[in-house]
Amino acid sequence: MNFWLGLLIGLKEISAHKFRSFLTMLGVILGVASLLSMFALTEGIAVGMRERLEANGGVERVSIDPKDPSQEVQEIAFLSPGRTMLDVEALERGAPLVDLVVPESYQSAALSRLNLTERVRVTGTVPNFMESGKFEIEHGRMLCQLDLDHSHRVVVLGATVVEELWPQEDEGFNPVGEVVSINHIPFTVVGTFPFFESDSAKRRREAGITEANRERANRRGHRRSSRHYDPFSRKNNAVVIPISTMFYDFKSAQNADGSPNYKLDQLAVRVLDLHRFEDSLEQVRTVLNRTHRGIDDFGFDTREEWFENIESSVRATRISGSLIAGISLLVGGIGITNIMLASITERIREIGVRRAIGARQRDIFVQIVVESAVIGVIGGLLGLLTSLGVLKFLVLISPAENAPVITLTAVSIAFGFAVAIGILSGLYPAFKASRLDPIEALRWG
Amino acid sequence: MALVELTDISKHYRVGDQQIVALDRVSLNIESGEFLAIIGPSGSGKSTLMHLLGCLDTPTSGRLVIDGVDVSKATNDQLAAMRNTRIGFVFQSFNLLPKFDVLRNVELPMVYAGVPGRVRRERALEAIERVDLTHRVHNNPLQLSGGQCQRVAIARALVNRPKIIFADEPTGNLDSHTGEAILSLFRDLSEAGSTIVIVTHDNSIAARLPRRIEMRDGRIRLGAEAAVSNTAPLIGRPAGEGAA
Questions:
Q1: Strand partners, A65
Q2: Min CA distance, A307 vs chain B (Å)?
Q3: Which residue, A252, A423, B189, B222, could crosslink B194 as a Cys pair with Cβ 3.0–4.6 Å?
Q4: Phi, psi dihedrals of residue A364, rounded to the nearest 5°
Q5: What is the longest distance spanned by two Cα atoms in chain B?
């Protein structure tokens, strides 16, 4: 039999019993809606997490963190100088598997211009900092080697900082060449960073949702509280000076006994080849073992774990969500089977007539399966629409950090399941209908 | 060669432990172009005989050849193909599909025959014209009278140009006047060359057909055929007169 005719009969059958068909589809609709919503929400979360990870330097960035040395060397732990510029030099020379060795040294300081003063965290670092932290330059330039060599008093400012120091100026204001003071030492602004934000924040801002105002308030008022959690806000609040200047101006007598503090607050490298991730770490370890005189007072904080955590938590959410959605779909399928059985009982005579005028068993089979597949298809489509509604609603009531992301894969999986359920649940009724004896069926009713 | 040849056809049913013999070694030939009645009281086996002739069922034993095809051992699909292209059915209760209009009902057998849509429509309209229902093409069977429904059913039976048409009590659900009209429609078809078998328990109808076969207890009653063979001229007369 013609497939289109089967489709037509199915649609007719469904439209003849609209409410009944709708109730039948409800299981499929809810199943598909929950499946797709769940996929979209987890995908949204994953995208947000990946975005933040990316803003932090991506998976290839490994930061070298201090840790307690192991038991055996604890007695002589004082022999290790800790993380210093020596490490940077040694790594640049002795660890070819990594590049972008970026030291950072922090100093909490008063940043002022005219009568405006801001409490900021000044970062002393090297030019590589820009590439490693995925910064860009809006105006002027980044620090350069010359700044480092001569310990120039120059500073590169984040967008939020610029906004705070020049509150009267417009958004595109270029402060290059202006002088600001850090703890009363004058620094020349040589560059600024653009305003960084997550994609979802950007979309919200562009859509003009009130969220933008909150974001603005965040940038002004609650800067410090969110600094550690939001890499974007951290970047926007950056005050970057050459690390040599940092040592000379702020660290030269920082220790309690008046001696200089050469220790770095942050040391990170970039792994060149992710396939040789372990080798690269091993190389870094070997180099640092020398500079640290065999004291293992450092560890690696790899984003790989972070990345894996994202993936595994997303996977776990998906599995549990799919299970629930799957049960809903299964229930929907049982509903379809039930209705199809009732429907063929209603139509035994019709089936008898069709057989008598020449329908083969398989024609009847196809007709019933197509009918239940149509229920699955329509249910699936309505489910997709429902999930769009559900997601819109969710975004409306809780404009969370991560907007749900609907991927084509998720849509096809959810829809595919609906169609499969439609077909599968029609098989048994179709088999039953096709096996009816035409003579008996004609006598029915 | 006869259009339909039955040789020693038997049909047994099992109901519980009981073996029921519905047909007992029946032999019969139907020639092309014949117009005949199968009569007999209920339980005589006439329905079983029609089901076998109509390829809705297969015999327990014996040989049944229709239009040169031995259907006594045919598979389900072969039987379906026979019903589809060589056999037309007209039922007592019309058995139209109420969801479809007249045109689609008539088209249905061609759908299963795989006739392309446009040809299907053409031929259906042709058949509808033959039963004089062109003005009702897009009506639903529920909007038609009984006689009109039976005409649609006849059009449906005709549409695949079958070798033989079986009508099972075609006037049973109709008043005598309408029944008469249906009967004369069959007569017209017969005169146009169709082979028609009417199964009925109504002697007044059977009496007016050129040939009649009387069933009793699963067998053809001998001698019955000859007795009515010369009643042919009565065709077309009102039922009451024919019975007299």
A1: A299
A2: 58
A3: B189
A4: -65, -45
A5: 54
- On chain A, the residues whose CB falls within 8 A of the CB of B57 are 439
Do the beta carbons of residue A74 and residue A294 sit within 8 Å?
no
Q: Which of A4, A347, A357, A360 to mutate to test the interface with B (most CBs of B within 10 A)?
A: A357
**Closest CB to A439 among B57, B96, B114:** B57
Answer whether 0.80 is exceeded by the pTM: no
Structural domains of chain B ordered from first start: 34-59+68-227 (3.40.50.300)
Nearest to A201 by CA among A235, A168, A178, A173: A235
Residue closest to A251 by CA, chosen among A259, A439, B49: A259
Do the chains contact at A357 and B84, CB–CB below 8 Å?
yes
Rounded distance, CA B165 to CA B160, Å?
Answer: 11
CA distance A167 to A147: 28
Q: Which residues of A touch B156 (CB under 8 A)?
A: 357
Residues 6+ apart with CB under 8 A from A430: A340, A364, A365, A366, A367, A368, A369, A372
Of A130, A93, A66, A95, the C-alpha closest to A267 is A66
In the block, tokens 């405006």 appear at A116
Q: What are phi and psi of B46, to 5 degrees?
A: -70, -35
pLDDT of B171-213, one tens digit each? Answer: 988 898 999 999 999 999 999 889 999 998 888 888 888 888 9
Residue whose tokens read 């073996």: B19
Nearest to A391 by CA among A402, A376, A381: A402
Cα Rg, chain B, nearest whole Å = 18
Look at A1 and B112 and tell me if their CB atoms are within 8 Å.
yes
pLDDT digits (tens, 9 = 90+) for A378-434: 999 999 999 999 888 888 876 655 778 888 988 999 999 999 999 999 999 999 999
